[in-house]
Amino acid sequence: MLARARRFFRFLTTVAFSGTGGRCSFSGNVVTGTGGRCSFSGNVVTVFGCTGLLGKVLINRLAKEGHQIIIPSRQDPYYTRYLRVYGELGQVLILPFQLKDEESIRRAIRYSNVVVNLIGTRCETKNYSFEETHIEGARRIARIAKEMGVQRFIHMSAMNASRDTPPTLFNKPSQFLRTKGIGEEVVREEFPTATIVRPSMMYGGNYDVFINYFLALQRIPYRSVVYVYKKGEHTYKMPVWIGDVSKGVERTIVDQNAVGKTYEFVGPHCYKLSELIDYIYDRAHLTARFPHRKYHRLHLNYLYRYHCCLRWTA
Q1: How many structural domains are present in the chain?
Q2: C-alpha torsion sign, points 13, 19, 21, 25
Q3: What is the DSSP letter of 165?
Q4: What is the pLDDT of residues 188-206, one digit of tens each?
Q5: Which residue numbers delimit the NAD(P)-binding domain (predicted)?
């Protein structure tokens, strides 16, 4: 392990200054070992947004391929320490950073030749809105990566992301998809050779948002109704396993043909949302264990009417 650490830091001392005055990453052509977790692939990969659903699985796969991994995180070290065991001793490094602090971003990618941006949010907060996260944050990371001489930049977007997103049920476009689409454009402006990945709905892992969301509804006492748009009969999904997405992202790092391209990762089959919900409840054995609590899929209008009645009777 000590020999591995000495070898890695000896590589770091071979970096040169780029023409823009920033640190330039080394070529990444030096490969040592027979392959696997205890080897060094020659790539130092900085992964932003590694504490999310995809980040944990991606780090585990990158570590198995022998990549040196740098994890910038704004969380307390207590909540990120488990990420170290995904690799060998000294293979996974965790650095503090803030998305609005350019100096912390420069420290995170100073010695990297590959940068992966997984940062995204589905809920706005007072500190980070959709625009600040998907547009300004992506622009800042891509610009600094270009200035620092990073060779490969992979940006994670979303399926159907576009500046001209059509109106939804609420008669206005999805701000999540709209800002994701604009984020792709600004990344292309700052880093023209960036690889953009658009995954479909992902499932798998301990933090599966899709499956756990619908199952959590049945854990609420006296709750047997699932509200979805038009009962889920007019919504189609192509779910993709999170392990396949992480494998695809890892391949874009080593594949030179992926430079400057946009990939859409989808599953092999297309389902109605109603079919997926019925399958989830059937496999969870909720309908058999609680026959008196058989769930019903209702259109969202019923939910709106219910809230309107509560508002008028309050």
Answers
A1: 1
A2: negative
A3: P
A4: 999 999 999 999 989 887 6
A5: 49-203
